[in-house]
Amino acid sequence: MTTNLAEREGSGWGLPLHPEAIRLSEEEMARAAALVDLAEEPELAWTRYLRGLALAALSKELKHRNATITIGPELSPEDPQRLLALDGRATQLLCISPLADAVAVPLSPWRDAATAPQLLLLAQVDEDHGTVQFLGVLDAVGLVAEIRRLGASAQAAVELPLERFGGGLERLLRWVRLLEPDALPRAGLGGSSVAQVGERTAMAGLQQWLAQVLSSPTLMPLPVLGTRGGEAAVVRLITPEVKTAADGSAMTQAVCPTPSIWAETPLAEILLEQEGKVVWQQLATRRNPIEGPIRWPLDPLLPQQRLMICLRPYGAPGGAYAVVTLIAPDAAVMQEGDEVIENELRELLEVDPVVIKPSQQEARAVTAEARVRQWLAIGSRRLEVSSDD
């Protein structure tokens, strides 16, 4: 869960909002209702209304975050038969009620890989209280693989439990902001998907790379301050790479303007502070710790900008953080690093060289960032890698 540090609306009905729910005004709900054609079949009209509410909530949240993400098509995006275009990414949007424990996914859009969606976005719409919560997103390759595993390819729809969705709106925004449209391939039910083969190959390479990283002694342990009793806890960052400053404190130099954050073990909280003020926060939920890479959530770093990264391990008490100072180098250094990362990312996605680059620290840091972006590009959820601590 990501907390926006601006004041949010409360529930007009005196009920607490889910932390990830988006509250709509009466005017916004009325605009969604005006999209309904009373001559339509009741079920289609109702679906159109829920979709209109979901789109209103998505637009509102993007505006709240100052996110420059376009929502298309311009003509009748509320039509349940149409795919959305989120910055050019074909997306199937489905809406469910708060009482639903599963979602029926219509499979007609998934028949032909040439026109199939790239993403499936699930929204939980509470029209009574005017709230919308985006439960999560699935990529096309993962969804098609799940449909085939269930043997449901020939059905008109497949029912998926809500547990199959995760990441909320944060995952959608990370994918849309980070990846070019072509990095999220379409996948259809009509035949074998080349993208699936590519994903398995890339996944094998990532597993081998991550196993090498986790077995390497180069990951510097960051002590967690504020723990009570027992052994002193530590956090190790896969990226950005942590070093020891001249004064003995932990520091890391950004290799690009938008560095990823990836801890070796699950986290309960991530804070970014600048000049003593919290500028971004992400909290885990009871069932979902923070795992895997986190896309840089703020504006690109400016030259010589400094922030504090505060990391609380999963299970640690509130206020117990490992702290590292993030320093942005000169603009030319970051631009060069970003170009190298993007070039290497394209190579990693086209072929799969499971080779760690030269041993210089800067080269390792750039390679790690490229591997992180590869992870995100293939929509991975978790790597099951065993390693010796």
Write up this protein.
With 389 residues, the chain is of the alpha+beta class. The chain folds into two domains: 191 residues, Trna Endonuclease, Chain: A, domain 1 (3-Layer(aba) Sandwich), CATH 3.40.1350; 167 residues, no CATH class. Helix content is 29%, strand content 23%. The strands form four sheets. A seven-stranded mixed sheet has the order 1-16-15-17-18-13-12, with no helix packed on it. Helix 1 crosses helix 2 and helix 6 packs across helix 7. The radius of gyration is 22 Å and the shape is globular.
Short description:
With 389 residues, this protein is of the alpha+beta class. 29% of the residues lie in helices and 23% in strands. The chain has 2 domains: 2-192, 3-Layer(aba) Sandwich (Trna Endonuclease, Chain: A, domain 1); 211-377, no CATH class.
Question: Which sheet architecture does the biggest sheet show?
Answer: 7 strands, mixed
Strand order of the largest sheet: 1-16-15-17-18-13-12
Total count of domains: 2
Compressed to H and E, one letter per element, the order equals EEHHEEEEEEHEHHEEEEEEEEEHH
Alpha plus pi helix count:
7
- Average pLDDT: 79
Topology, please?
Elements: E1 2-3, E2 22-23, H1 26-34, H2 42-64, E3 71-72, E4 84-86, E5 89-96, E6 102-106, E7 119-126, E8 131-139, H3 140-149, E9 157-161, H4 168-178, H5 194-214, E10 221-223, E11 234-239, E12 243-244, E13 250-253, E14 262-263, E15 267-274, E16 277-283, E17 306-313, E18 322-327, H6 331-350, H7 361-377
Parallel strand pairs: 5-7, 13-18
Antiparallel strand pairs: 1-16, 2-8, 3-4, 4-5, 6-9, 7-8, 10-11, 11-14, 12-13, 15-16, 15-17, 17-18
Helix pairs in contact: 1-2, 6-7
